[in-house]
Design goal:
globular; four-stranded antiparallel β-sheet; alpha+beta
């Protein structure tokens, strides 16, 4: 009997997807890479690049075709993510929440009415959706959520504070997680709501000043007596929230792992080019065995990460493993890219420490990958816990 992986047929045909991937590859290499320093210096994605991304369908590549998206599944998503990862991570961040953690909440858990109201506009880029989960006291573990939603007649009233919310400064819609009652047993008491950004009581803070990823905007968001209709409750069910968060984050972890592979490939390519052309004592530094050893370690990490990402994506899509494999992929790949980026700076020597040099930016940018959508420590807890639970059954 064929395994689930062998039975899998991608959502979009191979020929069509290869055309999409080729267009994205060309866009990244010829249009975005030459403007990386501009993006870093201005801390913004130029309007013309945003328009091109929207025209290519990148704001909705993972949204089903019936709602105006390209309809790619996760096995295809990760192939694009490895392309996006080849350049500044700010580009992917611009449309990442629409396709990923925010958009997938609606795709998988929204009511038909909620999908009709929002998904086509999300897929086109007319609406930027933002995933509002993290709080000052609740990061990688949503169980500590303090934002509250109270039912008042035919409205929900939301009060609370969110932190480090990606795309908050440009968001049109917040996918907000809030506690409707205390956790009790298996009931987490966490629900999720659709809150338009212009709703009275929603206040977006100033843009965060981060170590890296210039052009990818995050900020605090506060909700002070924010009133939304009962139709804003995702899925029409108070218990949907925690499940929606965990499902979206698990999928997102495979995507982040693929981004890490893309960044690692770029760091490797920059290292190889520099080693082949920079000289020391009249010889290319790539002729020195210790430099070759660093390149070998980088190449090994990239190849292992790429294989792991593809395997985890396939297991997720077939339903074979949506718990352990995403965490394994994110843990390995985000730790791997940190090591590859560090080696890239080492290969470049002092040059690698200079602003404007790609590996210097990559070194700063990839540090965040080990933190968001679940820290490396949280991934280890998930992996270890799942192994023990499986063995105990």
């Amino acid at each position: 009997m064929a395994s689930p992986a062998q039975q899998h047929t991608p959502a979009v045909g191979a020929d069509d997807f290869e055309q999409i991937r080729s267009v994205v590859h060309d866009f990244i290499r010829t249009k975005v890479v030459p403007r990386e320093n501009e993006i870093a210096e201005t801390n913004t994605i130029p309007d013309d690049l945003r328009a091109q991304a929207a025209e290519m369908g990148l704001f909705g590549y993972a949204i089903p075709e019936e709602w105006g998206g390209l309809g790619l599944d996760l096995t295809q998503d990760v192939e694009l993510a490895m392309e996006f990862g080849y350049t500044t991570l700010a580009l992917r961040s611009m449309f990442g929440t629409n396709n990923g953690i925010a958009g997938q909440v609606l795709v998988n858990f929204g009511t038909d009415e909620q999908k009709r109201d929002w998904l086509e506009r999300i897929a086109s880029g007319d609406v930027v959706a933002s995933f509002a989960l993290t709080e000052p006291g609740a990061g990688s573990n949503p169980a500590g959520l303090r934002t509250k939603a109270t039912l008042d007649g035919d409205q929900w009233v939301i009060d609370g504070q969110k932190r480090f919310i990606t795309n908050a400064p440009i968001a049109d819609l917040f996918v907000v997680f809030a506690r409707t009652r205390p956790a009790e047993g298996k009931n987490t008491g966490i629900a999720v709501f659709l809150v338009p950004a212009d709703t009275p009581g929603v206040e977006v803070g100033v843009k965060d000043k981060k170590m890296g990823q210039e052009g990818a905007w995050t900020s605090d968001v506060s909700f002070d007596g924010v009133r939304v209709p009962t139709s804003a409750l995702v899925g029409g069910d108070e218990e949907t929230g925690y499940r929606a968060a965990m499902t979206s984050l698990a999928r997102g972890r495979v995507h982040i792992a693929a981004l890490a592979v893309g960044q690692a490939q770029r760091a490797l390519d920059e290292s190889v080019e520099y080693a082949a052309n920079a000289t020391q004592g009249g010889k290319p530094i790539g002729s020195f065995q210790l430099v070759q050893a660093m390149l070998a370690d980088q190449q090994t990490g990239v190849m292992a990460g790429r294989a792991l990402v593809r395997d985890a994506a396939l297991k997720y899509v077939t339903g074979e493993d949506r718990r352990t494999a995403p965490s394994v992929a994110k843990l390995y790949c985000t730790e791997m890219v940190g090591k590859v980026a560090d080696l890239a700076v080492q290969v470049h020597g002092g040059t690698g420490y200079m602003r404007g040099v790609p590996v210097e930016r990559i070194y700063r940018d990839v540090r965040l990958l080990r933190l968001y959508e679940g820290t490396s420590e949280i991934q280890r807890l998930i992996i270890g816990g799942n192994l023990i639970r499986t063995a105990s059954k």
